[in-house]
Design brief:
This protein is mainly β and 274 residues long. It has two helices and 17 strands. Helix 1 packs antiparallel against helix 2.
Length: 274
């Protein structure tokens, strides 16, 4: 329970440092679809391990959820739609953990997020701005256990635009974002926002994707592991570079604050019920 409370505290602290999003509709020239999918490459747990997740899509400020219990979705999978408002987006919040008493494993718990863009204007070029908000946590305990949790963002030009990768390992050294650490089995965390943009010429299209993945194993019955990973990608603005327009001045809280708070509460409720 102490770790659940600490995890939620990180969520709420992250919300306090979030930038604001300009209210408004996505320009009619821009068609933007987003999706989240529990990948078929995911594998079932063994021993005392469990894996659960919530996928979310926000369209026009309205949220639709799909829950995943082990490998079983409740709701649409993939979860997809056409985004209409600034602040709309797609997210995943996942948990993989074990309890003592058995050799246990989360072999692969995998989610894909994808976005497709098209500029239907015959004359105008647009610069479209996105925000990836993320929280990543991994912790292994006992003589022989590890847990790896990662978030990766890809586009057509750069193979890996962003990565958050944590490995807590009680037998070998821990690692964070590709750097080996002097610790073993430490509680590791990584959170924040990553801003990026895509420029679309008249009639052009583009796409990008993200991967959320975790895997871990307790190799003896006294070891445990715990990972909690969330990512939400939203559209936060668009500039017409050919015919610049004055920006709207109506600020709103960034949508991912609401997403993270909702996901945290859902995960806590699920943890308590279990």
């Amino acid at each position: 329970m102490r770790k659940v409370i600490r995890f939620c505290s990180i969520f709420f602290a992250l919300g306090l440092i979030t930038p604001t999003v300009t209210a408004g509709l996505i320009p009619l020239d821009i068609s933007l679809t987003g999706s989240a999918e529990h990948a078929i490459d995911s594998a079932p747990t063994t021993g005392n391990a469990s894996q659960n997740a919530d996928m979310s899509i926000i369209v026009g400020g309205n949220t639709t959820l799909t829950s995943i219990a082990n490998l079983t979705p409740t709701g649409a999978n993939p979860l997809s739609g056409t985004l209409t408002d600034f602040g709309d987006g797609v997210g995943v919040s996942a948990i993989g953990s074990s309890t003592a008493g058995a050799i246990s494993e989360v072999p692969d718990f995998i989610f894909d997020m994808g976005f497709s863009l098209f500029n239907s204007s015959a004359t105008d070029t647009y610069q479209i701005f996105f925000e990836l908000a993320f929280l990543n946590f991994a912790d292994a305990d006992g003589p022989d256990a590890y847990i790896d949790a990662e978030i990766n963002l890809f586009n057509t030009l750069i193979p890996e635009l962003f990565a958050s990768d944590l490995t807590s390992d009680t037998f070998y050294n821990d690692s964070k974002n590709g750097t080996d650490l002097p610790t073993s089995g430490a509680a590791l965390s990584d959170n924040g926002t990553f801003l990026f943009d895509i420029t679309l010429a008249a009639g052009a299209s583009d796409n990008f994707s993200a991967l959320l993945k975790m895997d871990g194993k307790a190799f003896d019955n006294s070891s445990i592991f715990n990972a909690r990973t969330s990512a939400f990608i939203s559209i936060v603005g668009a500039d017409n570079l050919t015919n610049p327009q004055p920006p709207s001045q109506v600020p709103e809280p960034s949508t991912f604050i609401l997403f993270f708070i909702a996901m945290a509460l859902l995960q806590v409720k699920r943890k308590i019920n279990n």
